[in-house]
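step 3/5: co-fold with SN-glycerol-3-phosphate
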Amino acid sequence: MSDENLKPSGSKEKNESDDPPDNPPDQDECDQGVCYIKEAEEKDDSKTFITDILDKATNIEESAPSRVNFDENLLSKLGLVESKDLENINTDEDASKLKAYIPKGYIDSAIMVLDPDIIPEKQESTSVEDESISLSMLSSIVPSEILEKMSEIFAEEKQDTALKYGPLIGAIDEGTSSTRFLVFASKTAEVLTYHQVPIPSIVPQEGWFEQDPILILHAVKETIKVTCDNLDKLNIDAGEIAAIGITNQRETTILWDRETGLPLYNAIVWMDTRTNTTVDEILKYGLRSQYFLQQACGLPVSTYFSALKIKWLMDNVPAVKTAVDEERCLFGTVDTWIIWNLTGGINGGVHITDVTNASRTMLMNIETLKWDQKLCDVFGIPMNILPEIRSSSEIYACLFMEGILDGVPISGILGDQQAALVGEMCFKNAQAKCTYGTGCFILYNTGQRRVISSHGLLTTVAYQFGPKTQPIYALEGSVAIAGISIKWLRDNLEILKDAAESTELAQSAGTEGEVVFVPAFSGLYAPYWRQDARSVICGLTEETKPGHLVKAALEAVCFQVRDVLEAMTLDCSMPLNKLLVDGGMTVNDYLMQMQSDYTGIPVVRPTLTETTSFGAAIAAGIAEGIAVWELDKILPVPCDTFQPQISEDLRNIKFSKWKMGIERSLGWIKTGGVVNEINLPRMVEWDENKSEERIVAAAPAGLFLIGAAAIIVLSEYFRRSIR
Ligand SMILES: Nc1ncnc2c1ncn2[C@@H]1O[C@H](COP(=O)(O)OP(=O)(O)O)[C@@H](O)[C@H]1O
Ligand SMILES: O=P(O)(O)OC[C@H](O)CO
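step 4/5: write tokens
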């Protein structure tokens, strides 16, 4: 089914009363599962109404049974009954009036209080845990026939969910710092409700960054359950969810036992640097460049990617080695782990991933979109542990789980940065977006062309909408540290109470001071790819205050984005004329303005905040067999735009200071691998018929000195030589 009116929720005027909130509710509120219910209450003034009822009810004995305590005065004051005579209550009319004020969840629970036998097994799961509401009081004020009538009306309306919202699409969004489940209305693409659960990280030693796969799974299940409960409270039929999309932190690696279903080790998260030595080991033979596999998989050898993490696990965790030897081991990125478990686990769960996630492992051939035997051999990884690679949009399997979503098809998978590209609707060549979360990731759509970067960018699959369609590629600039540096200032240095305070503190620093903070906690990613780098803070004086550090941390995000944009211009010969942005950090207007100032181009932020999840929902909703959406019917989202406000000179002076900071961060730790002093890759030609790679172009050390013009010419040559 297509829908002419399809538009994301942000496309409405901001602050319209019927909009979902622009900013996600507090984490605490979400954890209580009441966030959108609270919205509904405020919207309908029902809180005041219920408070009135409760005020009145305090005079009523709590243990008293329902009808006898029916408070005629209160109801007549509210115009709900005309007569004091109970016999004359117009049940239908009064129930309709009252229904406008009291959310369905309260009615269900109140009915249960009246008659606990109605649905005893559901009593616990549907009870409304709002501290201020005493349901027994509500039941003792409102006559049971009215409550029952209201329940009937709600049930009828619920049947109209599809009419009102169109089919619903669910999106599981498993990010580095939290997991969410959101439900989109296909008619308007608005988020109807969601629930979010933070995911704690485990740091067993410096540079190690793990998460518990079981906890991730529990969090996913909890978000699904609470979101469905929320839908019920909003009187929306969760049974109308037609399909589920999934988007996830990429590269994070999980190995588990196919027989027990248990993880063999914690998830090794993408930013973990324990594989420094594994990188060295891979590079040491034949003095290989970091880029020796770039032609085959689009990526430099780095601690970032899954293959290194799998190798480390096989080399260092005996349980993994045994499971591999006994062919019981399964590998997955987070999408794979979740889908395997949600579709049956040891009882027939499907073991799959999509092209976007597979393109982050270093094991998939970027051209054939298949696992590559030679790449697997480089890392010594057996192919039988790898999931099947599927497109980003097709029906893969159905959920096999308790609850109303049992049997709902999963029909979309996208790595989270690719999902944001889709959610920003960058479907055309040369459209790009930047997502600011834990890290910061800029993806530039290169269409069906695989551009192999000569300037430290990654070649990655952007999406493939269906098994029979052509894949679309992107160039990516991955920056490891963005929002997490703000978290570090908060948790480790304790100079911030919360992330939002960063604006005020940074502003307090004014324009004075020249503190530069290079946050290379995990080495430097794009465009430098220097695992020997570590963080530095330069330019401190006795006048330096916390505000200067916070400002420098925000500036670092902007400068890293500029580094990547410059590399993209060199690779694509076409500078971006605006930057589309999204992600958790973009709520910070100060940061967005600074980003525009430091890049010299407008920064455009959509009013739809849930871009990544929306991308996953799109992939699921357009899949063959689901087809609740059509790509070309999706309307553009209205945006806020930040225009550059500083001079070119000032911008460049600041950037040159940043570059000095970068220089000082390099070589901080010793690595055994080959460091590309100039970050210009040695290009190799991947020969399918030979086991060894052949160098077709190598940049001599110091080439940077010959000037930018020569580099552009050279990069053009490289590109032509590999196309
Ligand atoms: N107002 C703010 N200013 C700066 N950073 C912020 C602000 N609000 C949130 N952040 C940062 O954004 C990150 C969370 O963004 P999110 O997109 O949810 O991350 P992820 O997808 O990586 O889980 C956190 O690292 C947090 O420090
Ligand atoms: O969870 P995020 O938003 O920080 O994204 C993580 C990336 O997918 C890592 O490549």
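step 5/5: annotate
The chain has a mean pLDDT of 79.
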